[in-house]
């Protein structure tokens, strides 16, 4: 699932007004968090996640774990907040530009 730069820009504009749906605590990214994120992606397709504290390498590891477990793509990453997208093939919610 490769997104074009135009599609990424469109998704970033949609994500601007979103509030984080998933908040990571001290334990960081776990299997339970990945399961909840997968459910949120099924419902919303575009989800903001607020990462737990730590340095940049730790946040990158959390993002890699979450995207790997859920099959999602990173749309935007600013500080401790990351925007993830995964298309719901059965019931698409967002119409992406070409």
Automatic annotation (TrEMBL):
It comes from the Bacteria. PROSITE patterns: CRM. Residues 1-97 form the CRM domain. Keywords: RNA-binding. It holds the Pfam family CRS1_YhbY. This is RNA-binding protein.
């Amino acid at each position: 699932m490769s997104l074009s730069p135009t599609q990424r820009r469109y998704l970033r504009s949609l994500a601007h007004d979103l509030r984080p749906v998933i908040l990571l605590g001290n334990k960081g990214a776990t299997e339970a968090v990945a399961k909840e994120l997968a459910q949120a992606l099924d419902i919303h397709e575009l989800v903001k996640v607020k990462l737990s504290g730590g340095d940049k390498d730790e946040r990158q590891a959390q993002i890699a774990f979450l995207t790997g477990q859920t099959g999602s793509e990173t749309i935007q990453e600013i500080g401790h907040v990351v925007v993830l997208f995964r298309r719901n093939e059965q019931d698409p919610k967002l119409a992406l530009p070409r």
